[in-house]
Write a structure and sequence with these properties.
- There is one protein chain.
- The protein is 40% helix and 16% strand.
- The chain is of the alpha/beta class.
- The chain folds into 2 domains: 5-36 and 302-421, Alpha-Beta Complex (Aspartate Aminotransferase, domain 1); 41-277, Aspartate Aminotransferase, domain 2 (3-Layer(aba) Sandwich).
- Helix 3 crosses helix 10, helix 3 (59-79) crosses helix 12 and helix 12 (300-327) packs parallel to helix 15.
- The longest helix is centred in the last third of the chain and has 28 residues, at 300-327.
- It is globular.
């Protein structure tokens, strides 16, 4: 495809960095992507020229109010929801925990809460607090063959006692994409109105979302996983959040979405997050001719974002196929992830025989390939794969600013390391 990667790369100052004489390839997108210049500029501009608290009568306060409105509208376009259904927090983890404490008041002894062995601990550990209030916590097992949530086990565990279901949209460890729309539909069919919470921290970067089409009640993500500052954002179905008892301060607004937010928000990072959405939309406008027909019926910012994410998804998929095909030719490398033909993001987990994950990552770092190793807080998944004793996996996260030349160099360096360690 004709993806304008040259323009994209020009937006990221960090891509010009060298380490030990090598141009740096940043592969830790799943843990935090790099930042476009315009996003950093927006954060700086707000801090230097518009810094104030909200709800005042003076100019900079009103400008901060406008930033908050703009950001909610931007993320509403990204999620496919109303601006009054967008809440902000420190990160996705803190928002999941805040939500869990609200559900303490909704759970009765014997009620069942369903989590999965695939999820990041943010969408597992948060719900464990409900066990202290009588809930029965159940976990859906990992389908090791397809490296995904075991859908038959998921279906079997849903029943009339199920009150809340927390599921993963895309695995931050191995890249599997789950059909959350189908899973939410199962919840509606097989329970008496159980609530659904989706961890979309890894998926927002790689595909268009439509929370109304999915049908979930809550969906959380963190903007630093898709070119933004450290910030959490959550879609909250207004009808539910309006009646959920979140215990906001009596001085706070008591309606959705404000009642899920705690105290003064990080206005400068929210300004940067809004700019991140506009940056993605710019990519959409640059690929309108190729993908506009796939956004029929959409308009404005929502249309630009859907086009952008479709273009990014196809480009990343091509790079990922190239990477996996090359990895499978290298002796001693094992790729951990969904089999060919199953939906996945461009995040690839690997191990190398005779070398633990930390040592492998260190070799790569010396050669300018920056990535992470470990369990990435998808602790149960890595335990189920029996990889904890080896330090977990090495994770290669391709995003839309990478190139085929990057992939070729990654493969060359990995083959070199594999040859050295035997």
């Amino acid at each position: 495809m004709n993806f304008d990667v040259a323009w994209v790369r020009a937006q990221f100052p960090s891509l010009r960095r060298h380490h030990n004489g090598h141009p740096v390839i940043y592969l830790d997108g799943p843990g935090g992507t790099q930042i476009p210049q315009r996003v950093a500029d927006r954060v700086r501009d707000h801090m230097l020229h518009h810094f104030a608290n909200v709800s005042g009568v003076y100019a900079t306060s009103q400008e901060t109010d406008a930033v908050m409105t703009e950001a909610r509208e931007a993320f509403a376009a990204l999620f496919g929801c109303g601006a009054d259904e967008v809440a902000f927090g420190a990160n996705a983890t803190s928002l999941f925990y805040k939500l869990a404490w609200a559900f303490v008041k909704e759970i009765k002894p014997g009620d069942e809460v369903l989590v999965t062995d695939v999820d990041h601990e943010a969408n597992r550990g948060a719900w464990m607090v409900l066990a202290e209030h009588g809930a029965v916590i159940k976990s859906v097992k990992l389908d090791k063959t397809n490296m995904c949530i075991d859908i038959e086990d998921f279906r079997a565990q849903l029943n009339s006692r199920t009150k809340l279901v927390a599921i993963n949209h895309a695995s931050n460890a191995v890249g599997t994409i789950h059909d959350v729309k189908a899973m939410v539909s199962m919840v509606k069919e097989l329970t008496d109105g159980a609530y659904t919470v989706i961890d979309a921290v890894h998926s927002v970067l790689h595909m268009p979302l439509d929370v109304k089409d999915i049908g979930c009640d809550f969906l959380g993500t963190s903007t630093y996983k898709f070119y933004g500052p450290h910030l959490g954002v959550m879609y909250c179905r207004k009808e539910l959040l309006s009646v959920l008892r979140t215990d906001p301060l009596i001085t706070q607004k008591q309606e959705a979405p404000f009642k899920l937010e705690m105290g003064t928000q990080n206005h400068e990072h929210i300004a940067g997050a809004a700019e991140t959405v506009h940056f993605i939309a710019e990519i959409g406008r640059r690929h309108e001719a190729q993908y506009g027909h796939l956004a029929s019926g959409l308009s404005g910012l929502r249309r630009d974002l859907v086009i952008a994410l479709l273009a990014m998804q196809e480009y990343e998929h091509e790079l990922c196929e190239m990477l996996i095909a090359g990895l499978k030719k290298i002796k001693g490398i094992k790729v951990w992830g969904p089999p060919a033909g199953q939906p996945r993001t461009s995040t690839v987990a690997i191990t190398l025989n005779k070398l633990d994950a930390k040592g492998f990552a260190e070799y790569l770092a010396e050669r300018g390939i920056f990535l992470m190793y470990g369990h990435f807080y998808a602790l149960r998944l890595i335990e189920e794969l029996g990889l904890m004793d080896r330090g977990g996996v090495v994770r290669l996260g391709l995003v839309h600013f990478h190139t085929r030349k990057d992939v070729e160099r990654i493969l060359d360096v990995i083959e070199e390391i594999a040859t050295v360690v035997g």
